Amino acid sequence: MKPYTYEDSRFIINDYDEQKPFASFLPGVAGLDGIPMWVYYTNRGQGIACFGTENKDGAILDFVPANVAYRRTELQGFRTFIRIDGITSEIFSSVSTDDYNRRMVILPNGVGFEETNLTLGIKVSVNYFTTTHKPYAGLVRKVVLTNLDGEPKQIELLDGLMTVWPYKNDNFAIKNMSNLAVAWFEVFNHENNIPFYRNRSTTSDSAAVGSVEAGHFYAAYEGSSAKALPILYDPDVIFGNHTGLIKPRNFEKHPLSKLLEMDSVSANKLPCAFAAYEGVLGSELILTSIAGKMSHLDQLNAISKAFCTEYFLKIEQAANTLGEALTQDVKSKTAYPIFDAYVRQTYLDNLLRGGYPILFEGKDKPIVYHVYSRIHGDMEREYNDFYVEPAFYSHGNGNFRDVNQNRRNDVYFVKEAGQFNIKQFMDLLQMDGQNPLVIKGSTFTISDEDRDWVLTHVQDQKEIIASVLDKNFTPGALMRHIIEQRISLTVSSEDFVKLVLSRSEQHNDAAYGHGFWVDHWTYNMDLVDNYLNVFPDQLESLIFEGAYKYFQSPDVVLPR
Known about the structure:
By secondary structure, the chain is of the alpha+beta class. The chain has 18 helices and 26 strands. The strands form six sheets. Strands 1-2-9-10-11-12-19-16-15-14 form a ten-stranded antiparallel sheet. A five-stranded antiparallel sheet has the order 8-7-13-18-17.
């Protein structure tokens, strides 16, 4: 058997857990009208090594470097315990003595893992994908159990996430003072079988104690049922005093029904999230679950009314469609399908670093706005503090050279981006020829007169929109306030954002970061060359029309 194959737009790794370890990530895009999530995976255990929202401080499963992920993912990530005919096993375990075959399936916007267990007579498939076109961020996990021998099996199942960090615990607290941090941990809403994990209050040493409204959540559903499965959130109920987490001692000793009756501690300890299911496995069983973030409990309870397997299957379809749509610009059909897929993947990598240019109507000319961009802060580059804006029209930060070189082809697909990119990066050169490191996303401002005009399209809570527009804003932040505050408008929220931007001024910004570079200006010439390849008659206009300026950094190198 070949270790690697490519079939039906899927890259397959056979016996993935026996291959050399590697680190990768899901694209982390949710569409223009969705909230993205960062997700990193490896070829160990059930794959997901860490995930969350915004940056490392928004982790649901805390960020770790690649070499740590290879060691811990199997125990601290997603796990599946199953009891069939009185025998308890863990699927995807590296110490399993069962007779099995495993493979990993990589998709453009998802990843999956399969185990065909001949000893148990079942096949378990796990697929991960992120929520798309939704006003919240989530990682969906679809588990399919297939009965291989046709004989109905009585099963007891625990499937879920070993570690869930409550919202409002930053990376420093997780890595350096987690034993103290648990004093603020609490699990709410567990009576509704959709636990909501957050700190009870802010934790900073200050005179004022603030409230925490947002939280992480976990929910799971079986088959076509819209009733949430019970979630075990106290790891002691499953593992007892076995803090090594190798074996689920209590689950091995007791029936699942007894575990559900045990007292669970909902505060002051590091929680987990395991869905509990007991029933008969006929030909197939589908279990779908979601881990994500909501801005407040009311939002969770309102949105979760729609949760069910069918709801998540539609999200899976949307995620697959988006993965294809993002790379449709470079769709090719050659005699080598794997080459066609390589072209798409390379293009996707480019737009994730440089951003994808979309257009809005501006005052005098179209506004070029790059979405989906972020710094390459994967597990093998843990030194980079990535940022994925948790908003519609999401975009993040990036380094000068990375963003620059990954926008070289913009002009071939969105012609308006040609001069925009050239001007942005030329304007970031300093008088000494050097440039700053960090490229920030675009922001906008609006004059008082234009602000008052757009407010005529707001029917209530005008003060909220006014407060957003009184300072630099992004389209995503504006949209988030409209949705979360349920603000009524005379037009759709999308059209309102377009109206605001049509009266606004765009600003590109940068930051010193941690150094200056003197040679990165050379990448600007690639932007110029490609622009002139498309518009050879625009050289004079490019040079002499429109003002260029020097970047004035707040940080300077002092004379010796």
